[in-house]
């Protein structure tokens, strides 16, 4: 069913810091005609969004990806982020491999978003290019090199537009003919929004190119939570980003720093910030690698993570997570991507027979649920036959575990307005989100469970993946999904079992 009412979802302050927010704090920037290499997903099925300015006078937009390894999907949408699996995107491409191409004829000028999403294991080392064909005589867009991102100490970059004079501002105003001409390079030492525009000798004026350069003090230590993710890291050669994560004893700590363009290394040490360079022979105080460090058994306390620039780099992502000696389930907020749909249900349909909906025309809030096992051990389910916690679903011809997940629609004060009826699920391996996890699926609906490093995904189009909202008026609400709400299944951590996102119904 296609959505009949648009719905805007903002993954903002209500989304816990544990959630994997691919486009926060701002989408990565793709500049017209400037290739971006080294695209890598830390989440094999994760959606990454890029921002592109399409100027006046553009007759064609062509977005291509190629190179590297793996599989990806490509989406393009104007003004609004494409959703998970391309929801809402009028342009989408999905072929095996990384070679994808989308063409938009006579694109409307303004902000466009490009989405790349991993498929069948994700992708690594991919190159993306957004080519803009312009009318003769049109002023080009300004390119920023290196692009906006999060820097330490200072950010030095250039602003260029072929055959044009570039003028810029740093006070939030739009550049005009009286704005200063950009120098050979700019250096910033504080958070700054830079706006630039090209002016040709024939009087043509280009679009405003805007970028936010975030600059942290050199040596600044930033705290990470388990499964916390920081995107858009950038640095000149020799620069260093430092993070800290508090870890209990006897856990597994995994740190990943990858993606983007350029080279960096990641070092992890307990108690103190790792020194620059390789550890000396016999020195076990810290571990260093190009992109992934695993501490198999932690000591209680703070671990420090240093990302060192072996060359100029940009677009890097850092993620760290702690896995206890057991299963740990959590809902993954970024995939919810809810939308409103009006549908008609037959009295003999499975959905009606199983009590998930009443017959007739119904107005639904549909959403995708992904439950990940972020622990160090598999979640292994018992034999369902004769077990009171399971029920046999005749329509599906297999058992469902009762009370596995619950969903509610709340007002902005947290008061319950609607409740989802689907609470029983079949647990199986769907999405291998951790590259270090077992590569083969183990669990199915016949032998249920979720491996460590895997997730179980229930797409929004499946039966029961909704909350009935009937005559609910337009407004802003909260969608809440909780896994294992009654703590029936043993986990090492129950604090991350709930996710809440704001939902605006137009």
TrEMBL record:
Keyword set includes Signal: yes
Keyword Signal part of the UniProt annotation: yes
Pfam families: CHB_HEX_C_1, Lysyl_oxidase, PPC
Protein name: Lysyl oxidase family protein
Ranges of residues in domain GH29D-like beta-sandwich: 146-208
Keywords, comma-separated and alphabetical: Signal
Peptidase C-terminal archaeal/bacterial domain segment(s): 49-115
Domain of life: Bacteria
Family matches, as InterPro entries: GH29D-like_dom, LOX-like_protein, Lysyl_oxidase, Peptidase_C_arc/bac
PANTHER family recorded: LYSYL OXIDASE-LIKE-RELATED
Signal peptide: 1-19
């Amino acid at each position: 069913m296609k959505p009949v009412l648009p719905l805007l979802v903002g993954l903002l302050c209500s989304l816990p810091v544990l959630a994997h927010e691919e486009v926060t704090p701002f989408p990565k920037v793709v500049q017209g005609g400037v290739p971006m290499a080294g695209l890598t997903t830390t989440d094999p099925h994760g959606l990454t969004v890029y921002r592109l300015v399409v100027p006046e006078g553009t007759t064609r937009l062509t977005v291509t990806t190629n190179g590297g390894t793996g599989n990806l999907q490509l989406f393009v949408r104007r003004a609004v982020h494409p959703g998970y699996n391309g929801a809402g995107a009028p342009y989408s491409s999905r072929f095996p491999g990384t070679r994808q191409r989308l063409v938009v004829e006579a694109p409307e000028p303004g902000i466009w978003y490009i989405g790349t999403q991993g498929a069948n294991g994700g992708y690594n080392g991919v190159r993306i290019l957004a080519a803009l064909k312009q009318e003769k005589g049109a002023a080009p867009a300004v390119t920023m090199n290196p692009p906006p991102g999060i820097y330490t100490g200072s950010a030095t970059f250039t602003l260029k537009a072929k055959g044009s004079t570039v003028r810029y501002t740093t006070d939030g105003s739009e550049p005009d003919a009286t704005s200063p001409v950009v120098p050979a390079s700019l250096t910033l030492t504080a958070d700054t929004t830079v706006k630039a525009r090209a002016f040709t000798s024939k009087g043509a004026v280009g679009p405003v190119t805007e970028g936010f350069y975030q600059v942290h003090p050199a040596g600044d230590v930033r705290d990470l939570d388990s499964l916390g993710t920081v995107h858009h890291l950038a640095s000149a050669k020799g620069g260093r980003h430092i993070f800290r994560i508090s870890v209990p004893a006897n856990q597994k700590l995994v740190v990943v720093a990858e993606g983007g363009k350029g080279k960096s290394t990641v070092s992890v040490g307990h108690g103190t910030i790792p020194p620059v360079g390789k550890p000396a022979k016999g020195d076990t105080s810290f571990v260093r690698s190009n992109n992934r460090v695993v501490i198999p058994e932690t000591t209680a306390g703070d671990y420090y993570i240093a990302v060192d620039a072996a060359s100029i780099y940009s677009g890097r992502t850092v993620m760290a997570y702690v896995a206890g000696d057991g299963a740990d389930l959590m809902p993954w907020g970024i995939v919810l991507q809810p939308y409103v749909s009006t549908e008609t249900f037959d009295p003999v349909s499975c959905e009606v027979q199983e009590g998930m909906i009443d017959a007739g025309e119904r107005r639904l809030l549909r959403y995708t649920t992904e439950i990940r096992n972020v622990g160090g051990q598999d979640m292994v389910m018992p034999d369902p036959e004769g077990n009171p916690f399971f029920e046999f679903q005749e329509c599906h011809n297999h058992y469902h575990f009762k009370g596995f997940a619950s969903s509610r629609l709340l007002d902005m004060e947290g008061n319950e307005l609607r409740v989802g009826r689907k609470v029983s699920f079949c647990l199986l391996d769907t999405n291998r989100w951790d590259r270090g996890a077992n590569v083969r699926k183990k669990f199915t609906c016949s032998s249920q469970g979720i491996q460590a490093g895997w997730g179980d995904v229930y797409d929004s189009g499946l039966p029961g993946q909704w909350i009935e909202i009937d005559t609910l008026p337009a407004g802003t609400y909260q969608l809440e999904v909780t896994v294992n709400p009654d703590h029936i299944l043993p986990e090492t951590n129950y604090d991350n079992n709930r996710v809440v996102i704001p939902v605006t119904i137009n």
